[in-house]
Every structure is written in structure tokens, then in C-alpha cells.
Amino acid sequence: MIGWGVVVWLRGGEALGGPAPAGSMAPGGQDLTLFLALRAFASGCVALTGIEAVSNGVPAFRPPEARNARQVLVMLGLVLASLFVGITFLANTFGLVPAEQETINS
């Protein structure tokens, strides 16, 4: 998704649907913002369970276990960071806002 979004951006294209008009937040948008913050927190907790699984599985790694587990955690962190930065960049670049029945990722 991020790769395709960068290709569209480099070609000077617009996201499907284009940017939302200014001031188009529906009434009750503040409640939606709280919901989205809580949803992001829950998603972050799910990501932490993946990190916890690596931490708990250190004995299953080949020797040197600590070094190999550290490399896996670094790679996992890089993947999470690149997804966050890429999606945030594309959402800001194309002026995307979540709709009532559709998220930014979809």
C-alpha cells in the first residue's frame, strides 16, 4: 500500500476521492477523535503482544539467543515504525480523513 501510494504521489496523482473539503467534520467529531485514540491504543497493545512473544521465546532462538532475539526485536520495531511513518505520510500528502464507514487504511 505504501509503495503504491508513493508511486501515485511521484506521478503527481490524487488519492481516490481526493481531499475532503475544509471544515467537513461531522457533528460529534470530537467523540470520534476519542474513539480513534482509544482504538490506536488498543492496536498498539496488540503490537506489544508480538514483542512479548519474542521476549518470551528467547530460549527457542539459536545460540547466541540474546543476540538473535535482539535482532528480531529491532526488525519488528523497524517494520512497525516504517508502517506508521508511511501511512501517516500518505494520509497527510493526499489529505485523507476517515469516513463514517471507512478507515484510512481501507
Molecular structure report:
- It is flat and about 50 Å long.
- It has a domain at 63-93.
- The mean pLDDT is 78.
- The N and C termini lie close together (10 Å).
- Helix 2 packs antiparallel against helix 3.
- 63% of the residues lie in helices and 0% in strands.
- The protein is mainly α and 106 residues long.
Termini distance? 10 Å
Q: What percentage of the residues does DSSP assign to strands (E)?
A: under 5%
Mean pLDDT: 78
Question: Tally the helices: what do you get?
Answer: 3
Number-wise, the strands total: 0
Features:
106 residues, mainly alpha, flat
Q: What secondary-structure arrangement, pairings included, does this model have?
A:
Elements (H helix, E strand, L loop, with lengths): L1 H9 L18 H28 L8 H30 L12
Give me a quick take on this structure.
This protein is 63% helix and 0% strand. By secondary structure, the protein is mainly alpha-helical. The chain has a domain at 63-93.
